[in-house]
Specification:
15 strands; binds iron/sulfur cluster; three-stranded antiparallel beta sheet; 2 domains; nine-stranded mixed beta sheet
């Protein structure tokens, strides 16, 4: 499988917790950005190759008009061989998306919508500096369904400032009541250079303690299971057959191309990242200069460790025999002591030739992953 990622760097307002490559008040750059993006796609050396998924993320892709989004998708289908059953996702902001935009996008070929809900509590949304209300979410879901979308993801964040376990459960219940096919449930991460981070450092932001955060994670598992969702990745839950194919490409360490500022590509063992700022991205394209900010070639044991780190996020885990065949290296022999120690710790389990995180290990993924990099 191979995927394509398109990064749209615009937002209506910068949220207090966000460290994504996204910018508010850059309307003047939208047109030049679109020109540059089309130019980058047209110049791809991988023209004509087959791809199985496309994902428009950001930023806020729906900041662009339906026509602009459809135009990019149409260009991708001309430039590459997009599988007839490809999963084609667009992230949508419930505060700005319109019914007409969704209708146009569905007609253009988008078949999956990922809606940034984050919370159903007006106070929480305000603290996060989101531009939408809980009613906007309900409205967006209704518009998406009437436009023909049969594959919807709702994104929620837990462990928000001042959030209680009960409040989190109420948020999740409201999300489940909308019957999305997929739920992404991430804990808030305090990233440097965000307003939340600075407030926290000054003692002006109260977050739920670790014990409550773990309880929130377990309540997410319990409530989603009760509603018929399958947890297939640490933070992702889907109804049978609706796992996000695009993200599975990342977690399986399979190839993908990224277009747009800060987009990452991974192909033929090389990983590269585009220049970050939209203005510089536009300038470089116009000047015919390379877009790469940095690149690295991943070979041998580095690739194996990365594949283990990413693959262990999936609840089915990683088949080590398959990994040995893929990289031509004696993975089981090399990591025998590490695996043994992690099994004794209770964080992973080994069955036949596969390893996967245990229920406790789901909380310790970073520690498990770093054990494979230390070898
Ligand atoms: S809408 Fe999303 S990408 Fe934009 S600032 Fe908020 S969290 Fe960041």
């Amino acid at each position: 499988m191979q995927g394509i990622y398109i990064h749209i760097p615009f937002c209506h307002r910068k949220c207090g917790y966000c460290d994504f490559n996204s910018y508010a008040r850059m309307d003047a750059l939208v047109e030049p950005f679109l020109e540059a993006l089309h130019c980058e796609i047209a110049q791809s050396p991988y023209s004509g190759e087959r791809f199985d998924t496309i994902f428009f993320g950001g930023g806020t892709p729906t900041y662009l008009s339906g026509d602009a989004l459809a135009g990019i998708l149409e260009h991708l289908t001309r430039q590459f061989k997009i599988a007839s059953d490809a999963e084609i996702t667009c992230e949508a902001n419930p505060g700005s998306v319109t019914r007409e935009q969704l209708q146009l996008m569905h007609r253009a070929g988008f078949n999956r919508l990922s809606i940034g809900v984050q919370s159903f509590d007006p106070d929480e949304l305000q603290r996060m500096e989101r531009i939408h209300s809980p009613d906007d979410v309900t409205q967006s879901v209704a518009w998406a369904r009437s436009a023909g979308f049969t594959n919807l993801n709702l994104d929620l964040i837990f462990a928000l400032p001042q959030q209680t376990l009960e409040r989190w459960e109420a948020n999740l219940q409201q999300a489940i009541a909308l019957k999305p096919e997929h739920l992404s449930l991430y804990a808030l991460m305090l990233e440097p250079n965000t307003r939340f981070y600075h407030l926290y450092r000054k003692g002006k932001l109260t977050l739920p303690d670790d014990e409550i955060q773990v309880a929130m994670f377990y309540s997410a598992q319990r409530l989603t299971a009760k509603a018929g969702y399958i947890q297939y990745e640490i933070s992702n839950y889907a109804q049978q057959g609706y796992e996000c194919q695009h993200n599975l490409i990342y977690w399986r360490n399979e190839p993908y191309l990224g277009f747009g500022p800060s987009a990452v590509s991974y192909k033929d063992g090389k990983r590269w990242t585009n220049i970050k700022h939209p203005r510089e991205y536009i300038r470089r394209i116009a000047a015919g200069e390379p877009l790469e900010l940095e690149w690295e070639r991943l070979t041998g044991w580095d690739s194996v460790a990365e594949t283990l780190m990413l693959g262990l996020r999936i609840l089915n885990g990683v088949d080590l025999a398959t990994l040995e065949a893929r990289f031509g290296l004696p993975v089981r022999e090399h990591y025998a002591d590490t695996i043994d120690a992690l099994v004794r710790q209770g964080w992973i389990e080994l069955k036949d030739s596969s390893i996967r995180l245990t229920q406790e290990g789901l909380l310790w993924h970073s520690e498990v992953a770093s054990a494979f990099f230390e070898e």
